[in-house]
Amino acid sequence: MKKLALHWQILLGMLAGVVFALILTNFSWGAEFVNDWIKPFGNIFINALKLIAVPLILASLIKGISDLKDISKLSKMGTRTIGIYIVTTVIAVSIGLVMVNVIKPGSNINQETREDLIASYEGDALNVQSAAQKQKDAGPLQALEDLVPGNIFAAASDNGNMLQVIFFAIFFGIGLILIPEEQSKPVKAFFDGFNEVILKLIDIIMLSAPFGVFALLAALVVESPSPDLFEALAMYALTVILGLAIMIGIYVLMVWIFTKNKPSFFINGISPAQLLAFSTSSSAATLPVTMERVEDHLGVHEEVTSFVLPIGATINMDGTSLYQAVAAVFIAQAFGIDLTIGAQLGIIATATLASIGSAAVPGAGMVMLVIVLAQAGIPEAGLALIFAIDRPLDMCRTTVNVTGDAAVSVMVAKSVNMMGPPNVKTWKKKSENSL
Fold first, then answer.
1. Helix (H, G, I), strand (E, B) or coil at 300
2. Quick one: CA dihedral 156, 160, 164, 167, positive or negative?
3. How would residue 179 be classed by pLDDT, with cut points 50, 70 and 90?
4. pLDDT digits over 370-414, tens only?
5. pLDDT for 194-225, tens place per residue?
6. Residues 6 or more apart whose Cβ sits within 8 Å of residue 178
7. Which of 15, 219, 238, 406 would bridge 39 by S-S if both were Cys, CB 3.0 to 4.6 A apart?
8. Quick count: other Cβ atoms within 10 Å of Cβ 171?
């Protein structure tokens, strides 16, 4: 018998957790049983995700930055690639924040349910209040001062200091680029191998996702059985999907402006890669198909795709960034936390930087969300609210990630005069002076 795909296993775990908890709520001892014997497994799963966050950032980001050594040969292409990737990521996060503040999916939870949630996670609520007061008392340049760690090991011991870890990873990656290749090669080889180990650990953790979702949903149902919570989840999912759809529209518009080709040109060219991304939830697994479609059906030269697309699979996670912005504010709304403009600008910065270190594999977006929540001072326990529907949304946001990679490769190719007619595998290369 063919084994069920992981996303179906997670969906079944979600359904089973809800049904199991609804059945037990009919017994006087049901809620206590779930809290004592089921919920801990959900907490273990969240802890496993938090455990892998710092190693994932270090491994993936250092590898991604050190791979940019080709910029020395293709400086114009490299600068434009990184620049466009950063711009589209900021746009994606901004769209997410606008959508979640306009729709306000978390505000549909009534005061009684919200109070039950806060009571369940009273310790987290107190930490939020303490962090808010500390931020209020800080000077105007405190955020810049806190960006540079005094001790990387101390910074790595607290997920709330993840921006410091990101700063160190970028700084370290730049150092690898600047030293001679023969000296950097063994260090880079170590982090390449380290990155593969971390990706495998994520695979192992995600194998337990159906059980983790079962436990999280069961605990959520017995702790807050109010139907308005599930209505809020539906609005949250709709908010994310609408934001992702808008982001795809922006990609199509940008390609249209850059290339003067009809929107159908880009959509028809990249659609098979989009479908594969949707089914696998992995930008890395989709990369070979993405490269084939962009080269053969969009007319981008191989020299551009081989440079832009692999980098994009590592540092360009627009769909993931948009989702993180929506999820963070939704959880804050669910807990009755009013985020200031400054806090939401911090989400833009953190989600943009965190997306650079997101691995191109299923489940990595949830790990990165832990970083965004911790940095914004939002209770990490709120992951229990959204993880049940994370997998379907992961499929959607991976589709956006791959679409963004393809769109940027087309724009970069056009800007350096290395885009030819579609449906032709090879075409005459422009003069080297075009670079």
1. strand
2. positive
3. confident
4. 767 777 777 666 666 676 577 678 878 888 999 999 999 999 888
5. 878 887 887 788 788 788 878 877 887 786 54
6. none
7. 219
8. 14
Instruction: Show the beta-strand stretches assigned E in 25-76.
Output: none
**Check: CATH 2.60.120 for 6-426?**
no
Helix and strand numbers (H, E) in the chain are: 20, 0
Two structure tokens written together for 141: 């340049």
Q: What angle do CA 67, 256, 263 make, to 5 degrees?
A: 105
57/241: higher pLDDT: 241
User: Taking the domains of the chain in order of start, what are their residue ranges?
Assistant: 6-426
Q: Which residue has the tokens 């593969």?
A: 196
CA gap 281, 277 in Å, rounded: 5
Cα separation of the two ends of the chain: 54
Asked if 236 and 386 count as a contact pair (C-beta separation under 8 A), the reply is yes
The CA-CA-CA angle for residues 56, 61, 67, to 5°, reads 135
Q: Tell me: the pLDDT tens digits for 23-61?
A: 998 898 998 999 899 989 988 887 887 787 678 778 777
Classified as helix, coil or strand, 339 is: coil
**Residue with the two structure tokens 């962090």:** 131
